[in-house]
Description:
Layout: H1 13-25, H2 27-48, H3 53-72, E1 78-82, H4 89-102, H5 104-112, E2 119-126, E3 137-144, H6 151-156, E4 164-171, H7 178-181, H8 187-203, E5 210-216, H9 220-226, H10 237-246, E6 256-260, E7 266-273, E8 281-287, E9 293-301, E10 306-312, E11 316-321, H11 324-328, H12 331-341, H13 350-361, H14 374-381, E12 385-390, H15 397-403, E13 407-412, H16 415-428
Parallel strand pairs: 4-5
Antiparallel strand pairs: 1-2, 2-3, 3-4, 5-13, 6-7, 7-8, 8-9, 9-10, 10-11, 12-13
Helix pairs in contact: 1-2, 2-3, 4-5, 10-12
Amino acid sequence: ALLDPFTPATPSSSEVMLRRVVSGLGAADGLAAALALRAAVRHAAVEVGPHSSAGFALDRMDRRMFGVLGLWFDPGLLCVRAVTASSPPEVLKAAGEVARQASSAHGAAAVEGALGPQHRCFAVSHAQMDPSAPPLLVVHASLLGRLPSTLHEAALGDAAAPQAACLWALGAPETPGLAGALRGLGVGQVLRREATRMLREELGAEHGAAVTALAPLRGFASWLRATRAWERPGLGEAGETLRRALLAGGREVQREVSFVDADGDTVAFRLRVDEGEEGERVLEVEVGGGPPRRVLKLVVASEARAVRFLMEPGPEAMQVNMSPEAVDSGELTRVTHLAEAAGMLPAELREPVLKFAYEFITRRGADGARSAEPAVHFHMSGGAALHALHWRADESPAGLAEALGVMASFAYRGPEVEGEAAGAYAARGLDAATFTM
Length: 437
């Protein structure tokens, strides 16, 4: 009451602007335009930086816009609908974009309905927005006989009697700035909560069905580089292997290794590296003058002087046997280093990498309590428990470049448990988080 006289009697200019946009364009187009305005403000704030008068003004404008949008995008005004083959074209397109963001291999299949009968998809929109327009967010899920350990398993689902469900892709369609414009509004939690509820109802066990979410650890590889994790004590040769994977091999690793195998065919392995620290690294192979093909997995059998690998399209397995001369000249070792630089780590690194991943996801944010990792914070805020960290869960080029293929899964254990866990996390952060690993 003491500060009541200092409360602004008139709305801010930012609020007036947003209200005029919505009233002038109508709710359907106006809400989309309001989100686009917030996206532009947030983008401009990043461009000028926070330590400037312009950055301060933009941050203040964003907070005021957030206050208005928070009222307009109240959970009671949001609609979650199932996406099916008969959904409007723009909705199907948005669903495909979100699926591709998680897995380029399954994006097109998600739109064409080729992921199988166990695939489910849900989208959230504002009640006053055109239902045939692109939704705000989309989530993909699959019904399975058991909980998955890889993105591929999660996306394909299981034709057997389903007993569990897994959310494997959640995001905004490729509308510039949309994800940032929705930040903090709680739209993702509304979609996740409703999708989980509908999946439980379909499984026939509203309070007992196992529902998990498989999430990427974007930024994990960058954190490993920033902390120079390969220099940690006790890693030994594993540290050198990790360094090659994180630094795309460094200068000492050749980007191409070619030799003539024991059958007289020319075999060439080539590492293609995109620009940037997190640029995708793709290992390709050409055999006998054929076209280059991406190598999915590679194992070197030193005693047998052989290289066994899996290629796409296919996938197709192949083994090439090196001549003694090629082995003596170090070609077998150089092929191994190329595979490591592409992110194909040997099994010996599983334990240390997963320990690093646990350290990464339990870092605390600026408040000293909640997780600094966005995916972990999102699911913990929704009342989930950390279920597992998965080795080689996403072996796509992007998954290997961003997180060495590691993903995290989160368990949703029923509305009552989730509500209690979400409240505890909001109050005490990671100190109250539940881990079921």
